[in-house]
Each structure stands twice: as C-alpha cells, then as structure tokens.
Amino acid sequence: MATTVKTTQQSIPRFYRTFFTSIDPVIASSGVIANLFFPSLILKSYTATPKLPPTTETVALLHGSAGCLLSTMFLQIVLLRLKSSDMTVWRCLQTSILIQDVALISSLFVAVADQGRGVTTLTAEEFGNLGALLGVGGIRVAFLMRLGFEDDEHGDKKRV
C-alpha cells in the first residue's frame, strides 16, 4: 500500500533562501576545516583548557563531526535547491539542524559547568562559538516561525 505525503509549495523569502543555501554552508565549511586541520581551535571553542595535542579518540570524534557538517552542507546546497519551494523539506531540514545547534550549545554549557566555571568566564573562543550558534539558531527559529514570509498558511501577513 503506497503512502502519499502532502508537500507544501511556497515561495521562500530571499533572505532565508540565500542564508540556508549559501551562507550557512560557508559557516559549516569553516567547522569542517577546523575539525579536520585545526583541532585545537575547535577544542578551545568548548573548553578553556583543552588536552593538546588531542587524543586519538578526540581526533576520531572531530573527524566524525566534520562528516556530519559535510553531510548537512550537501543537503543545504543540493536538496534545498532541488526542492526550492517545498516547505516541508525546508522545515524538516532546518528543524534537524536546529536540533544540532541546541546540542552544541548544551555541550558548551556542560563543559563550562564541568570545569566549575560560570558563563561570565567564557573565553573569546567559547563566546564566539556560542554567539555563532545562537545567531544561526535564531535565524532557524525565525524561519520555522515563518517570520518574513509574505503570507502564512491562513493568508495572514507575517512581519519580521
């Protein structure tokens, strides 16, 4: 028995289209490069006192993280262009990436707490990491809330 899935076709506002298909993948590519070639930079963005050089286990996790970022980039660059008006695809992908963002933010706070530190003691690297994650996460939340869309599903205007 075949199952049909209803998709919602709608024009994606230019800001979100540009951000999610071009800018966000560039941001993610910096994470790929850092995870693979500059592990100390990544580790310092989660802890003030990383174990350097990183252990074999840490390197394996960083490489796995780079792979996750690459697969997400592929979906952003290719899938969103192939399904350029399919709100179901766009919303599912952004929700999935938002889950990753929340997990990374949580990881940062857990690491800081495990060190017996507070938020006011964040290093520049940790603060930059948190700011980037909150920024892109905020854009994802705005998209999922349909802020900036011409019409919502009921024909009402949405404002940014």
TrEMBL record:
InterPro entries: DUF7704 (IPR056121). The keyword Transmembrane applies. Keywords: Membrane, Transmembrane, Transmembrane helix. The chain crosses the membrane at residues 15-38, 58-80, 92-112, 132-149. Pfam families: DUF7704 (PF24803). Residues 10-147 form the DUF7704 domain. This is DUF7704 domain-containing protein.
